[in-house]
């Protein structure tokens, strides 16, 4: 699948210098966000105790909070944020759709609906939610593309967005119907449903980690091929691109990333939409740089949003899915109104 395809445009000297420096800075910012995520919380814990909990665990309550609560949610937040950022970039590149992201195209809702059904029918919990999430994500991806491409017209960005919105509405109705009628399901997923890192432990991370890592590696390997696809299917084929294989690899990457991320943290909206656009400001259209940036910036956004959600309310926490929705919704409206929307 690797190609010697040219980049869509030759980057300027300034951009060639800024890209690696910016990526190093972004990784540094992510490290700071991860440190704050471990240090900051509803219960104030001195930095010295945080360090001692990581290096010299003594079993105290404060040390247990650091090790069993904050460290796992920080690790999960980093991987889930990277997965959602990558999935959004991948979907926007393949569909040439600036509105594509797992939430708007209904993939998150498909995974969530399958998880709710699994809890309702089989009483699934923890690691038992992983495969239902994958199946739901795959079903939603196929259904949205089929609905968006139905008829004589092709699957335009607006048609795909409308199909995804319609399917998500139907699936949300199914989810709420089950939750309202069944107290057991409601208790199991009421916080998971809004997108949350609260209470996630390392057992869940270890269950989804292989899928997340494979999805991230597959996606990063697709960068040169996606550059060729940006030139159009005919020209890409003349350059040696295997179009069906690239599309199949992209679909596998999206399903792995979205299914694993949703199984770990619930449906989180707008990260996959706004992060690729933010990364594109720095990298331009070159997917070889855009994809790593999307991963790092997505991890930064989700980790920072989770930290802010812990301290924004004096007596409680605001779930990370609510924070990203509050930030992402206005940006989504601005993006739809922008004349630059179609310039991918």
Automatic annotation (TrEMBL):
Key word Cell membrane present: yes
Pfam families given in the database record: FecCD (PF01032)
Source organism, top-level taxon: Bacteria
Compartments (UniProt record): Cell membrane
Keyword entries, A-Z: Cell membrane, Membrane, Transmembrane, Transmembrane helix, Transport
Membrane topology of this protein: Multi-pass membrane protein
Family annotation (SUPFAM superfamilies): ABC transporter involved in vitamin B12 uptake, BtuC (SSF81345)
Membrane spanning residue stretches: 21-42, 71-91, 103-123, 129-148, 160-184, 204-224, 245-270, 290-313, 320-338
InterPro entries, per database record: ABC_BtuC-like (IPR037294), ABC_transptr_permease_BtuC (IPR000522)
Primary location group: membrane
Keyword S-adenosyl-L-methionine assigned: no
UniProt similarity note: Belongs to the binding-protein-dependent transport system permease family. FecCD subfamily.
UniProt name for this protein: Iron chelate uptake ABC transporter family permease subunit
Species in which this protein is naturally found: Nocardiopsis exhalans
Lineage: Bacteria, Bacillati, Actinomycetota, Actinomycetes, Streptosporangiales
């Amino acid at each position: 699948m690797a190609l010697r395809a040219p980049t869509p445009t030759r980057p300027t000297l300034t951009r060639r210098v800024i890209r690696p420096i910016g990526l190093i800075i972004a990784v540094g910012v992510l490290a700071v966000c991860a440190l704050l995520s471990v240090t900051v919380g509803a219960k104030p814990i001195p930095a010295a105790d945080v360090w001692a909990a990581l290096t010299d665990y003594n079993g105290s309550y404060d040390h247990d909070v650091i090790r069993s609560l904050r460290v796992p949610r920080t690790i999960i937040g980093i991987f889930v944020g990277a997965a959602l950022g990558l999935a959004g970039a991948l979907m926007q590149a393949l569909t040439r759709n600036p509105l594509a992201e797992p939430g708007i195209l209904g993939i998150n809702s498909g995974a969530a609906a399958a998880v709710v059904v699994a809890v309702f029918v089989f009483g699934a919990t923890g690691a038992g939610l992983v495969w239902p999430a994958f199946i739901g994500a795959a079903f939603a991806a196929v259904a949205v593309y089929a609905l968006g491409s139905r008829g004589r017209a092709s699957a335009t960005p607006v048609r795909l967005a409308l199909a995804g919105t319609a399917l998500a509405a139907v699936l949300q109705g199914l989810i709420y119907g089950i939750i309202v009628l069944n107290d057991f399901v409601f208790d199991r997923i009421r916080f998971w449903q809004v997108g949350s890192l609260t209470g996630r432990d390392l057992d869940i991370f270890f269950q989804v980690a292989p899928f997340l890592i494979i999805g991230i590696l597959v996606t990063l390997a697709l960068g040169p091929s996606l550059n060729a696809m940006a030139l159009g299917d005919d020209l890409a084929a003349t350059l040696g691109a295997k179009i069906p294989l690239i599309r199949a690899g992209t679909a596998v990457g999206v399903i792995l990333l979205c299914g694993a991320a949703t199984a770990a943290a619930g449906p989180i909206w707008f990260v996959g939409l706004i992060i690729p656009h933010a990364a594109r400001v720095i990298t331009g259209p070159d997917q070889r740089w855009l994809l790593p940036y999307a991963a790092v910036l997505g991890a930064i956004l989700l980790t920072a949003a989770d930290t802010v959600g812990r301290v924004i309310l004096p007596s409680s926490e605001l779930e990370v899915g609510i924070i990203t929705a509050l930030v992402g919704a206005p940006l989504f409206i601005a993006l739809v109104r922008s004349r630059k929307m179609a310039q991918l």
